[in-house]
Amino acid sequence: MTLEMPNPAAVQLPATIARNERIVDRGFWRKLLKVAGKIPFAEDAAAAYFCAVDPQTPSKVKAILLAALAYFVMPFDVIPDFIVGLGFTDDAAVLAMALTLVAGQIKDSHRKRARAALHIPEPDATSAPI
Questions:
Q1: Does residue 54 register a pLDDT over 50?
Q2: Mean pLDDT of all residues in the chain?
Q3: How far is CA 55 from CA 7, 52, 80, 112, in A?
Q4: Planar angle of CA 124, 125, 130, nearest 5 degrees
Protein backbone atom coordinates (compact mmCIF):
# COMPACT_ATOMS: atom_id res chain seq x y z
CA MET A 1 0.00 0.00 0.00
CA THR A 2 1.47 3.32 -1.03
CA LEU A 3 0.55 6.49 0.75
CA GLU A 4 0.23 9.47 -1.57
CA MET A 5 1.03 12.88 -0.21
CA PRO A 6 -1.49 15.58 -1.10
CA ASN A 7 -0.45 18.28 -3.52
CA PRO A 8 0.68 21.21 -1.30
CA ALA A 9 -0.83 23.77 -3.70
CA ALA A 10 -4.20 22.00 -3.63
CA VAL A 11 -4.15 21.96 0.18
CA GLN A 12 -3.03 25.57 0.59
CA LEU A 13 -5.27 27.19 -2.02
CA PRO A 14 -8.59 26.89 -0.11
CA ALA A 15 -6.90 28.21 3.04
CA THR A 16 -5.43 31.15 1.13
CA ILE A 17 -8.77 31.95 -0.47
CA ALA A 18 -10.48 31.82 2.92
CA ARG A 19 -7.82 34.11 4.42
CA ASN A 20 -8.20 36.60 1.57
CA GLU A 21 -11.97 36.49 1.96
CA ARG A 22 -11.67 37.35 5.68
CA ILE A 23 -9.31 40.24 4.90
CA VAL A 24 -11.69 41.61 2.28
CA ASP A 25 -14.75 41.14 4.54
CA ARG A 26 -13.07 43.02 7.37
CA GLY A 27 -11.60 45.95 5.51
CA PHE A 28 -12.66 46.41 1.90
CA TRP A 29 -15.59 48.80 2.26
CA ARG A 30 -13.98 50.78 5.06
CA LYS A 31 -10.87 51.40 2.97
CA LEU A 32 -12.64 51.90 -0.35
CA LEU A 33 -15.08 54.47 1.02
CA LYS A 34 -12.20 56.27 2.75
CA VAL A 35 -10.17 56.64 -0.47
CA ALA A 36 -12.78 56.44 -3.24
CA GLY A 37 -12.44 60.11 -4.19
CA LYS A 38 -8.66 59.79 -4.43
CA ILE A 39 -8.42 56.77 -6.71
CA PRO A 40 -9.65 56.45 -10.30
CA PHE A 41 -10.35 52.72 -9.97
CA ALA A 42 -12.95 52.79 -7.16
CA GLU A 43 -15.80 51.65 -9.39
CA ASP A 44 -13.71 48.78 -10.77
CA ALA A 45 -12.73 47.71 -7.26
CA ALA A 46 -16.36 47.72 -6.12
CA ALA A 47 -17.46 45.78 -9.23
CA ALA A 48 -14.70 43.24 -8.52
CA TYR A 49 -16.00 42.92 -4.97
CA PHE A 50 -19.57 42.30 -6.10
CA CYS A 51 -18.34 39.72 -8.62
CA ALA A 52 -16.25 37.99 -5.94
CA VAL A 53 -19.22 37.66 -3.57
CA ASP A 54 -21.65 36.57 -6.29
CA PRO A 55 -22.56 32.90 -5.70
CA GLN A 56 -22.64 32.34 -9.47
CA THR A 57 -19.02 33.42 -9.93
CA PRO A 58 -16.67 30.45 -10.53
CA SER A 59 -14.25 29.62 -7.69
CA LYS A 60 -11.12 30.38 -9.74
CA VAL A 61 -12.44 33.84 -10.57
CA LYS A 62 -13.31 34.46 -6.91
CA ALA A 63 -9.79 33.43 -5.91
CA ILE A 64 -8.20 35.91 -8.35
CA LEU A 65 -10.47 38.77 -7.34
CA LEU A 66 -10.18 38.13 -3.60
CA ALA A 67 -6.39 38.09 -3.89
CA ALA A 68 -6.38 41.45 -5.69
CA LEU A 69 -8.89 42.98 -3.27
CA ALA A 70 -6.98 41.66 -0.25
CA TYR A 71 -3.84 43.32 -1.65
CA PHE A 72 -5.77 46.59 -1.86
CA VAL A 73 -6.95 46.25 1.75
CA MET A 74 -3.62 45.20 3.28
CA PRO A 75 -1.70 48.07 4.84
CA PHE A 76 1.67 46.60 3.79
CA ASP A 77 2.31 46.59 0.07
CA VAL A 78 5.03 47.45 -2.42
CA ILE A 79 4.26 51.18 -2.47
CA PRO A 80 2.70 52.44 0.78
CA ASP A 81 -0.69 54.03 0.19
CA PHE A 82 0.20 57.23 2.06
CA ILE A 83 2.76 58.28 -0.58
CA VAL A 84 0.93 61.02 -2.48
CA GLY A 85 0.72 60.42 -6.20
CA LEU A 86 2.22 56.92 -6.08
CA GLY A 87 0.59 55.17 -3.15
CA PHE A 88 -2.17 53.41 -5.03
CA THR A 89 -0.34 52.67 -8.29
CA ASP A 90 0.59 49.15 -7.22
CA ASP A 91 -2.97 48.51 -6.00
CA ALA A 92 -4.31 49.75 -9.35
CA ALA A 93 -1.88 47.53 -11.26
CA VAL A 94 -2.79 44.42 -9.27
CA LEU A 95 -6.50 45.10 -9.69
CA ALA A 96 -6.11 45.85 -13.41
CA MET A 97 -4.27 42.57 -13.94
CA ALA A 98 -6.97 40.65 -12.05
CA LEU A 99 -9.75 42.36 -14.01
CA THR A 100 -7.99 41.56 -17.27
CA LEU A 101 -7.81 37.89 -16.31
CA VAL A 102 -11.50 37.68 -15.42
CA ALA A 103 -13.01 40.42 -17.61
CA GLY A 104 -15.80 38.23 -18.96
CA GLN A 105 -17.00 37.43 -15.44
CA ILE A 106 -17.64 41.03 -14.33
CA LYS A 107 -21.29 41.48 -15.26
CA ASP A 108 -23.34 44.62 -15.80
CA SER A 109 -25.17 43.78 -12.57
CA HIS A 110 -21.85 43.90 -10.65
CA ARG A 111 -21.03 47.29 -12.17
CA LYS A 112 -24.52 48.60 -11.43
CA ARG A 113 -24.23 47.53 -7.78
CA ALA A 114 -20.79 49.17 -7.62
CA ARG A 115 -22.13 52.47 -8.90
CA ALA A 116 -25.04 52.32 -6.45
CA ALA A 117 -22.73 51.57 -3.51
CA LEU A 118 -20.46 54.49 -4.45
CA HIS A 119 -23.35 56.83 -5.29
CA ILE A 120 -22.21 57.16 -8.90
CA PRO A 121 -25.07 57.97 -11.28
CA GLU A 122 -25.91 55.45 -13.95
CA PRO A 123 -24.69 56.39 -17.42
CA ASP A 124 -27.40 58.07 -19.46
CA ALA A 125 -28.09 55.79 -22.41
CA THR A 126 -29.88 58.56 -24.29
CA SER A 127 -26.80 60.79 -24.37
CA ALA A 128 -24.44 58.12 -25.72
CA PRO A 129 -22.96 58.87 -29.15
CA ILE A 130 -24.52 57.01 -32.07
A1: yes
A2: 83
A3: 27, 8, 33, 17
A4: 125
Residue 77 has pLDDT above 80, yes or no: no
| 21 burial type by CB count under 10 A (0-12 exposed, 13-18 middle, 19+ buried) | middle
CB 110 within 8 A of CB 54: yes
Eight-class DSSP state of 58: -
Residue 35, amino acid: V
- In sequence order, what E strands does 20-120 have? none
Q: How far apart are CA 22 and CA 17, in angstroms?
A: 9
Q: Which residue, 91, 17, 105, 126, is CA-closest to 61?
A: 105
**What burial letters (b/e) apply to 55-82, b meaning 16+ CB within 10 Å?**
eebeeebbbbbbbbbbbbbeeeeeeebe
How far apart CA 104 and CA 13 sit, in angstroms, is 23
- pTM score above 0.85: no
The residues spanned by each domain of the chain are 37-119
